[in-house]
Amino acid sequence: MGESGANPLTAGKITGCYGIKGWVKIHSFTDPEENLFRFGKWQLKRRGSLETIEFDAWKRHGKGMVAHITGVDDRTLAESFKGLEIVVDGDSLPTLDEGDFYWHQLQGLQVWGREPDTSDERVLLGEVDYLIETGANDVVVVKATEGSIDERERLIPYLPDDTVVRVSLEEGVMEVDWYLEE
């Protein structure tokens, strides 16, 4: 079994088999999708533990990606990898410019909004559950948590310096310009 890095990050998933020579279909969570293959160190999450693997070839196929796992040369063995998450060391991600964040850094942040008609009164809306890419702009899905103002799930456009006023990873907080009625 492989050892996980200090900051394991799910970067993709094996969704099925491709052909009879051990190739697998991959759904990459990176943007662009090819970035998944730039890490050079991959692990698969299987039954709660991580096992190190190596991709020795990959290519675009239709709307997705296919890859060959070193040592997996037939479809039967490739089938055993279906549904497994591909994990990489998050510490190996490139450093972003000030004010830019990876999606995984935003998940779990407390989201604070404002009461209508008051500029100072902040209220807890919930926490970032996940993000949706819509094409026009990304959307933050905020789920209710203990202490939040109500039990509503909210979809808030991720527009820095507009709806998203401030993000502090150190404080675990995202402040949004979003009223309760919206």
TrEMBL record:
Keyword hit for Thylakoid: no
Pfam families: RimM
Alphabetized GO MF terms: ribosome binding
Coiled-coil positions: none
GO cellular component term, pick one: ribosome
UniProt keyword annotations, A-Z: Chaperone, Cytoplasm, Ribosome biogenesis, rRNA processing
Any GO BP: ribosomal small subunit biogenesis
Location within or outside the cell: Cytoplasm
Domain RimM N-terminal: 11-89
InterPro entries according to UniProt: PRC_barrel-like_sf, RimM, RimM_N, RimM_N_sf, Transl_B-barrel_sf
Oligomeric form and interacting partners: Binds ribosomal protein uS19.
Function: An accessory protein needed during the final step in the assembly of 30S ribosomal subunit, possibly for assembly of the head region. Essential for efficient processing of 16S rRNA. May be needed both before and after RbfA during the maturation of 16S rRNA. It has affinity for free ribosomal 30S subunits but not for 70S ribosomes.
NCBIfam families: 16S_RimM (TIGR02273)
Family matches, as PANTHER family: RIBOSOME MATURATION FACTOR RIMM
Domain statement: The PRC barrel domain binds ribosomal protein uS19.
Similarity annotation: Belongs to the RimM family.
Protein name: Ribosome maturation factor RimM
Species the sequence originates in: Seongchinamella unica
